[in-house]
Write a structure and sequence with these properties.
By secondary structure, the chain is α/β, with parallel strands linked by helices. It is about 35% helix and about 15% strand. Strands 1-14-13-12-2-3-4 form a seven-stranded parallel beta sheet, with helices on both faces. The protein has a five-stranded parallel beta sheet with strand order 6-5-7-8-11, with helices on both faces. It has a two-stranded antiparallel ribbon with strand order 9-10. α4 runs parallel beside α5 (about 115-125), α6 crosses α7 and α7 packs across α8 (about 220-230). The two termini are about 20 Å apart.
């Protein structure tokens, strides 16, 4: 832990060396720039403007498919007075959409995701199955109909779905028994932080006096794992911390060596471990899903130990 450098404790010389060590920034949004589903975190807009003033490229790598790319851009403009372009945002719905276009996919899709995620696919011209009935299973007959009724599909996509059910996962399993059916995954977080003080799902306490208070709910990662194990094959994972997204980001900026990239995030697994596997420098902020004690508990040499630590992005 003592190898981790805290931004606030850097000398002027060390701070300049830090800024001179990277050209490109990959930055998470929820828990880093703004509180999950809420307002900008104090200081984050100034930090982003400061990076821009130093000539740094910034790309936002988010797993938040609850909000559309348009909503992300509007939030940057309205709350941060920042003009962000679509090409600066890496969003799981868009990366999956781009992948399907790249392979000229034209089949029917069974998509377990939020309405904004599904809308991205529809707007791109892809065909999605429609849900029928109430979704309430009261008998084996209802379960059989939920699993087996409906058209066969050529692709199954799993992301955040607030109405996910055992019947939906069983239907996904049945479709994926066909080896020709594509298996795609978006965000694969084990936990999704919510704040300020919202208690949704599993929560953990903060120390008294902590400035930021967050709670977590189960993320889609666990449900993706259930389907993965049941069908015996891995999905093409185009959200953090997916290997396919990791390769996509490396290919997206071939002119920038990984050692010249700084990845900023609030999650040890989805951000720091993901980034270190690519050879990026890493900065962990404590305004989201990770506490200082979580970092201190990591053994020496752990793959999720960040290079730098900050109380918030404003420390930049």
């Amino acid at each position: 832990f003592f190898q981790v450098k805290h931004l606030k404790e850097l000398s002027d010389q060390e701070r300049e060396k830090f800024f001179d060590s990277f050209d490109l920034v990959f930055c998470d949004c929820d828990g880093v720039i703004w509180y999950p589903l809420r307002d900008f975190i104090p200081g984050s807009a100034k930090a982003l403007a400061h990076l821009e003033s130093r000539g740094k490229q910034v790309t936002f790598v988010t797993n938040n498919s609850i909000s559309s790319m348009k909503e992300h851009i509007e939030k940057f403009a309205q709350q941060g007075n920042l003009q962000i372009k679509e090409h600066q945002i890496v969003h799981p719905a868009q990366t999956i959409c781009d992948h399907l276009k790249s392979i000229n996919f034209e089949g029917l899709i069974y998509c377990l995701a939020t309405p904004p995620f599904r809308q991205v696919l529809k707007d791109a011209g892809f065909r999605l199955t429609t849900e029928s009935g109430t979704g309430i299973i009261k008998s084996l007959k209802d379960l059989h109909e939920a699993i087996y009724c409906g058209e066969s599909v050529e692709a199954v996509i799993i992301d955040v779905d607030f109405n996910l059910s055992a019947a939906k996962m069983m239907r996904a399993h049945v479709q994926l028994k066909d080896p020709k059916c594509l298996f795609l995954a978006g965000a694969a977080d084990a936990l999704i932080p919510f704040g300020h003080g919202d208690i949704i799902g599993k929560s953990y306490p903060r120390a008294a006096g902590d400035l930021f208070s967050f709670h977590s709910k189960s993320g889609p990662g666990a449900f993706i794992d259930v389907v993965t194990q049941s069908v015996g094959r891995q999905p093409i994972a185009l959200g953090k911390p997916g290997e396919d997204l990791r390769q996509l980001l490396l290919q997206r900026h071939p002119d920038v060596p990984p050692s010249r990239v700084l990845f900023v995030g609030d999650s040890l697994a989805s951000d720091i471990g993901f980034a270190r596997a690519s050879g990026y420098q890493t900065l962990l902020v404590l305004t989201g899903g990770t506490r200082l004690e979580d970092v201190q508990r990591l053994p020496a040499g752990h793959t999720q130990i960040p290079d730098y630590l900050a109380d918030c992005l404003g420390d930049i």
